[in-house]
Amino acid sequence: xxxxxxxxxxxxxxxxxxxxxxxxxxxxxxxxxxxxxxxxxxxxxxxxxxxxxxxxxxxxxxxxxxxxxxxxxxxxxxxxxxxxxxxxxxxxxxxxxxxxxxxxxxxxxxxxxxxxxxxxxxxxxxxxxxxxxxxxxxxxxxxxxxxxx
Length: 149
Fold this sequence. Notes:
Blueprint: E1 3-8, H1 15-25, E2 30-36, H2 38-43, H3 52-60, E3 67-71, H4 76-83, E4 87-91, H5 98-109, E5 113-117, H6 125-136, H7 140-148
Parallel strand pairs: 1-2, 1-4, 2-3, 4-5
């Protein structure tokens, strides 16, 4: 059984997310998806609009996903080893960067392939979030206080 793994925040789920999961599932027998916990999103200097519990439930409900698990850190190699994944799926914005060339070497030594998928043009959670904030007249601080109520 070929196990594939991918991770993401999956905030404001959109067609680009669905395309990635669908394409990934087409290349493996079992697809496991790590969903970034809110604390790690904050550590990365961002803020998810949708709480972790809701985001992971959305991912679990997608027919291409065999299992959804919390992602507590950025160590994808350890996660793949622990899960028995032989393929890691990532977006192509990382392709050919110094960091990911190093990762490719490390993953290869562990017999794990990295597959880069193209992002769906014109779609991003960041853009959707910015558009919502603009339409609603929110600033980030105003939105934060509204979600705390």
